[in-house]
Fold this sequence. Notes:
The complex is a heterodimer.
Chain A: E1 3-7, E2 15-26, E3 35-37, E4 46-53, E5 62-68, E6 76-83, E7 88-96, E8 99-104, E9 115-122, E10 131-140, E11 145-154, E12 163-167, E13 178-184
Antiparallel strand pairs in A: 2-13, 3-12, 4-9, 4-13, 5-8, 5-12, 6-7, 6-11, 9-10, 10-11
Chain B: E1 3-12, E2 20-24, E3 32-39, E4 47-51, E5 59-66, E6 71-79, E7 82-84, E8 95-101, E9 111-119, E10 124-131, E11 140-143, E12 154-160
Amino acid sequence: MPILGTLASQFSGKPFSSFESIATVTVGAGGVANVEFTSIPATYTHLQIRGIARTDRASTGDWLEIQFNTDTASNYSDHYLAGNGASAYAGANTSATYMEVNRFPAASSTASIFGVFVTDILDYANTNKYKTIRNLGGNDQNGSGEVHLGSGNWRSTSAITSIKIMPGAGTNLVQYSQFALYGIKGA
Amino acid sequence: MASTYEKIATTTVSGSATATVTFSSISSAYTDLVCIFVGNQNAAATAKLRYNNDTGSNYSQTDIVGSGSAVSNQRRSNTDSFRLYDILLSSNPINTFIFNINNYSNTTTYKTILMRSSDSGGEVGMAVNLWRSTSAINRLDFLTGATNWSAGSTFTLYGILKA
């Protein structure tokens, strides 16, 4: 069968100047209770968090929670559409103290399996709008798992200057979990 | 701050017969990869994606697809590739796939890949794929399920750097 090949290393791509790395956290040995990005500049239009994660919950699954600006009041809500291979389903959390981000493997999952996610935080520095996030994520555990599309809302007009990410039911994010924050500039 | 989103390579299928599109020798210098496909194949069949040319039963996936009138979801275990099921149909002229391959070059964890898809025939889908290997991904093979990828189909690979 014919094959069309491209040697990727022979290309030197031109970078997109509007997508910048702000900070990256890789969890070390022993895990951490949360990961927090602070002092986020207001110079971008949107933010994106990309990562892989697993928690220490004594289960095959956990979720992640996101809070902004250290706000722990009931100012959050989220909605999601998900499929686990057996059924498709949807759900919501209202007047919550965090926004839920899809399911991740946990302590009872096969070793080395991590969940992944890409979360967009739109118009994060605007001081006239409540803030909305969009998340695509999931995990597959070769016989179980979930793919997940979600949105979240933080009922605050404050510019987002800090982001805290923590396990839902577990105590720690485990070693090798990684969270990378990017800023996307407008025209 | 440095720009971090770079195009690594683009392949456009020409008029000649092309059954497989390969990105090889992918640098490990990035944190994540993003690959975007826009195009089709010359008959309705299940296309596949493989990492590092691994043909073992080391793949599994969970999918959800909406057709406008129904939602379906599937799980496949111990397969020999990431199956691009139910979406890529030659009767639909344009299909798009966006693959997010996070943390692709670490040598500690298995690799989990996210995919969003749509086609002009009216389906939208998303999938999560597990490749049970701790190897860094250095090669992607897109294998048509038909005879060939359609001329004009494009595959573009991007790399995203971290701070």
